[in-house]
Amino acid sequence: MFYSNGDIFIGEWEEEKKTGDSGTYMFAESTGKYTGSFSNGVQSGAGQYSTDGTSFSGQYLEGQREQGDLEQINGDTYSGFFGGEMNTFSGAGTYIWKSCRKTYEGAFVNGAPNGQGKMQIGGEWGYEGEFKDGKFHGWGTFTWSPAHYFEGYFYEGQMTGVGKLHFANGSFFDGLGEIPFGTVFHAADKSYLEPIKGIYSNLGVEEEAVFDGKVLKYKVQKVIKSAGIKKTFKKTGK
C-alpha cells in the first residue's frame, strides 16, 4: 500500500485497516521503519522501530510504545515503560548515559526521573532517594564513598542543611535535630537552602555549627561536649 505522503505499508488488511503479526510500515524520506504487529489499523503488540542511529524493540499499545528497549544515536539506552506526553519514558525504567557513565534506575514521568530512584555516577558516587523533574528533590542519600555521604533533604538538585553529613574521618554534621527523616515539607519553600543550625561532632567533641548544603561552618558557641564533659574552646572551622 502506497500513501500519498510517500509512506509504504506491506502486510495484512481487515476491514480496510492494517492488522496481523508481521506487517512493515516504512515512513517517507527514510525517516524510519516499523516491523511487527498491527491491530485496528495501528501498531499493537510486539514490534521494532528503527531509524538512522536509533532503534526500539518492545511492546506497542494502540499505536504507542508501551514497554521495551530503546537505543539512541548517541549511545544512550533506556529500558522500561513508556507513556505520558510525547510517548516518552513514563513508569519504571533504567536509563544509561554512555558518555558520562551515569545510570538511573527508578520512576519516570514524561521523560524525566520523578519519584523514587537510584542514580550511579561513575564509580562510587551515587544518589538514592526522591527525584522531581530530573533533579534530586526530597529525602535521599548522596554518597561519595562508603564513609563520606549525606543523608537528608535535597531541594531542586542541591543538598540542604536538613540532614546528616558524614566525613571519611568519622566526623559528622547533624542538622536534623528533632526533625524525623522523611518529614513532608512544602515542596516550593526555598528556606531549606538557608543555613541550618546543628551539631558538628569530631572525635567525641561536639560543637555548634551551621550548614547550608554547600559550606559547613562550626564555631564554639554553647553546646560543647567531650567525653560527656562540657568544655569551652575557641576554634573556628570551615
- What order do the SSEs take from the amino end to the carboxyl end, as H and E? EEEEEEEEEEEEEEEEEEEE
Q: What gap, in angstroms, lies between the N and C termini?
A: 72 Å
CATH class of the largest domain: Alpha Beta
Categorize the overall geometry: elongated
Structural class estimated from helices and strands:
mainly beta
Helical residue percent band: under 10%
CATH topology heading of the largest domain: Outer Surface Protein A, domain 3
Tell me about this structure:
It is a single chain. The protein has strands at 8-14, 17-26, 33-39, 42-51, 54-61, 64-71, 77-83, 88-97, 102-109, 112-121, 125-132, 135-145, 148-155, 158-166, 172-174, 196-202, 205-211, 216-219, 225-226, 236-237. Residues 221-238 have low confidence and may be disordered. The chain is elongated and about 80 Å long. The protein has no helices and 20 strands. The chain has 2 domains: 1-67, no CATH class; 68-237, Outer Surface Protein A, domain 3, CATH 3.90.930. A hairpin with a 2-residue loop joins β3 and β4. With 238 residues, it is an all-beta fold. It has a 20-stranded antiparallel sheet that branches. Helices cover 0% and strands 61% of the residues.
